[in-house]
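Protein of interest.
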Amino acid sequence: MIAIIDYDAGNLRSVEKALQFLGEEGKCTRDAQEILKADKVILPGVGAFGEAMEKLDHFGLVEVLQNVAKQDTPFLGICLGLQLMFESSDEAPGIAGLSLLPGKIVEFPKKEGYKIPHMGWNSLSIKKDARLFQGVEKEPYVYFVHSYYLEAAEQSDVAAVTEYITKVHASVERGNLFGCQFHPEKSGETGLQILKNFCEVN
């Protein structure tokens, strides 16, 4: 069973439907025991960093998710879920993230001709042998919606980048931890292949 973390942050059902399409059992839950026993865990989310961390704390999920990472359960953060995996965000100064990986979330600089939030399809430049992207075409297009972006502290964690105003760390992977700033569940065949690859991680 794949636990989809339910912390009132939206976008759960589209992830659940994508997993069902792939023939996988995804269950929206905030039950600590279910999450800790799950084969894999997905942390989706849309919204604000600070409010999301408050909700995770309210539901007693911060330590649970940190323990999931420690016990080597495959873990995937999507959009806001990726941002929450890191240490801090310009969006919520003073509020700590889950700190599963080193790095910070920063605000897009303003640039004439570019809209914020970054919303729409962008191509990815993928690191060779990135596990999430096996079988994915070169420089695929995926769907983004975000006003802040990741600056990973370790370049070795970055699995894919995109360009929008600046270089954006669009996907990460280290050990059992994976993250996508974009929405694989809304990125057509490419996104389904990425989710399938996560489902097949040992």
Observations:
- The two ends are 13 Å apart (CA to CA).
- The longest helix spans residues 188-199.
